[in-house]
Amino acid sequence: MTEAAAKEKGYKVKVGRFPFMGNGKAIALGEPEGLVKTVFDEKTGELLGAHMIGAEVTEMIQGYVIGKSAELTEAEFMHTIFPHPTLSEMMHESVLDAYGRAVHF
Question: pLDDT of 28-59, one tens digit each?
């Protein structure tokens, strides 16, 4: 679900964003253009939507798909370990950003 769609459906949302430029692996690959965005229900922590634009995002999106299927909340995403150095760290940073806890921002 997009941020706008979630709001239209009456959700109060928490939104996190993390740019590829903030990720060392993306910079090392010469792919600093892109963004990871997450949309959560403020009340329950449910993942409502995730959006990725940039290099290799097709290799990462399954992490959010699995999380959505397993009904993970923001707390479980925050406590998931993402390997370093990887592009997938941006997924974690986006979740953390939604709750004001981004590390590399």
Answer: 999 999 999 999 999 999 999 999 999 999 99
pTM above 0.90, yes or no: yes
Q: Which residues are catalytic?
A: 84
d(CA 26, CA 103): 16
When the candidates are 3.10.290.10, 3.40.50.11030, 3.30.390.30, 3.30.413.10, the CATH number that belongs to 3-98 is 3.30.390.30
Question: Which tokens in the block code for residue 8?
Answer: 């239209």
